[in-house]
From TrEMBL:
Pfam families: F-box-like. InterPro entries: F-box-like_dom_sf (IPR036047), F-box_dom (IPR001810), GEF_Ubiquitin-Prot_Reg (IPR052805). Residues 140-162 are annotated as: Disordered. Residues 47-93 form the F-box domain. The lineage of its organism: Eukaryota, Metazoa, Chordata, Craniata, Vertebrata. This is F-box domain-containing protein. PANTHER family: EPITHELIAL CELL-TRANSFORMING SEQUENCE 2 ONCOGENE-LIKE (PTHR46857), F-BOX ONLY PROTEIN 16 (PTHR46857:SF2). It comes from the Eukaryota. Coiled coil: none annotated.
Length: 162
């Protein structure tokens, strides 16, 4: 096959001629050779199409995912994580669920160097957690807002009975 790619035998084939040559080649192959070709070719089709799109278009595609699937997509790779943390994307998810403005919209927490956590995502996750706790019926003991040292009014009075 080296003759096919050598510089002195270089042939300028048109698109249809290349397809015809491939058809002929495949027809002459054994099943094991065709299986090998498939193993070589198949990874070429398993491309990350989201990363090939402009950011705005990628976010538009991700906007069709349910929040649960969006969280899973964020685990795919770093770029998908950045996309899945988009504040406007989560704002839309919040509006779909009837969640109003998050409490700390102005404060964006830094997850790692150069990576901001979406306040809208935080609001969505907080509301989801509240809803799940409400549905499951599992009540947890309330946490005190502040710790106070017991004073004289908090200590039980011992009375002596005669």
């Amino acid at each position: 096959m080296r003759w096919l790619f050598s510089s002195r035998m270089r042939v300028r084939w048109s698109g249809p001629e290349k397809l015809l040559a491939l058809d002929e080649l495949i027809d002459r192959c054994e099943p094991s050779q065709i299986k090998y070709m498939m193993q070589v070719i198949e990874p070429q089709f398993q491309r990350d199409f989201i990363s090939l799109l402009p950011k705005e278009l990628a976010l538009y595609v991700l906007s069709f995912l349910e929040p649960r699937d969006l969280l899973r997509a964020a685990q795919t790779c770093r770029y998908w994580r950045v996309l899945a943390e988009d504040n406007l994307l989560w704002r839309e998810k919040c509006r779909e669920e009837g969640i109003e403005e998050p409490l700390n919209l102005r404060k964006r927490r830094l997850l790692s160097p150069g990576f901001m956590y979406s306040p809208w995502k935080f609001a969505f996750m907080r509301q989801h957690k509240i809803d799940m706790n409400w549905r499951s019926g599992e009540l947890k003991a309330p946490k005190p807002l502040s710790r106070r040292h017991p004073g004289p009014a908090d200590t039980p009075q011992h009375s002596t009975m005669h």
